[in-house]
Amino acid sequence: MFIPPVTLGLNMMQLAFESNLVIGLRMITLGAGGQKAATEAQLMVSEKLQLAGLLAIENAFALAQGKSLESTQARSVSRYLRAVRANRRRLLR
Fold it and tell me: What are the structural domain ranges in the chain?
């Protein structure tokens, strides 16, 4: 599957924008302190490690099966964007 570089670039810019929004929301939560902050800090670290490990394995298998680097990159950006959006929705509740 061919992913035009412009599409991948736009998705990466969207990921950067939404990630910054989530970082700001998390800073507010962490700055407030308390049990909610402790829970958020623990969740933040565990989610990052889990998704990074999962994508490393998935990408290794995809490349070993002959999938293109572009499609693997696009899928990774899409998965990260989905996770960031879920965090944004959760933090805005």
Answer: 5-92
